[in-house]
Amino acid sequence: MKNTLSLARWPAAALALVLAGAALAGEDTKNLPEVKPLAAIIGNVRQERDVKALTYFNAEEQGKFLTGDYWGKATPDQKAQFTKGFQELFAKIAFPKVRKNFEHLANVLYEAPKTEGGKTTVASVVSIDHPVKKQELKLNYWVAQEKGQWKVVDVKVLGDSMLEGVRDDQVLPLLKEGGWDKLLKAMKDKLAEPELAKVKLK
Question: Which of 44, 76, 145, 146 is most deeply buried (CB count within 10 A of its CB)?
Fold first, then answer.
């Protein structure tokens, strides 16, 4: 078991598409409250306001999903350390790659939000006008309310969840092996690596 949290399952192309926001959404959906956080994320990431962009992700729901039954056993401090560390890792790994891919974003169309079994999702089709290969990819956003505001929890790219692989391959194995202490140490160690330490979030 590697004592690290690599987030290696997040390929660059998927990371770029995860945040292909609602700036180009259709007129019928762009003003819906469930879609607005997507527009806010894309706008802030484009303008290198990464810390602000992170406020449109539902950190607590992400924590619950990623750690499963361990979440209820964690102390408030452990929960706070995890959500802060995970968001910082995500921003430092994903956002720089996302910005590089924005120039190829041609169009984003969103369907009306759907709620089933208490879970709200927003389906979309993203058109990428890359000079080598044009693509159309289907994304499905899971959004949930936090203090009355809709925020993004997870995104499925072509059916592949952004969070499931990280949970199953990295977070849960670390928790099973050494509990919260091992997981939080792995996150701190990853953030301390020179490549990530030099990335400053604005």
Answer: 44
Report the predicted TM-score, pTM, of the whole model to 2 decimal places.
0.84
Task: Give me the domains of the chain, ranges plus CATH numbers.
Answer: 12-190 (3.10.450.710)
- Structure tokens belonging to residue 162: 């952004």
DSSP secondary structure, 16-30, as one string? HHHT--GGG--TTTT
Q: Residue type for 119, please? A: K
* Residue 158 backbone dihedrals phi, psi, to 5 degrees: 55, 40
Task: Report mean pLDDT in 10-residue bins for the chain, 202 residues.
Answer: 55 52 54 84 85 96 97 98 96 83 73 93 83 81 94 88 93 97 96 94 89
Amino acid 157: pLDDT: 82
Provide the 3-class DSSP secondary structure of residue 150.
strand
**Cβ(90)–Cβ(66) below 8 Å:** no
Tokens coding 134: 């044009």
**3-class SS string, 37-95:** HHHHHHHHHHCCCHHHHHCCECHHHHHHHHHHHHHHHCCHHHHHHHHHHHHHHHHHHHH
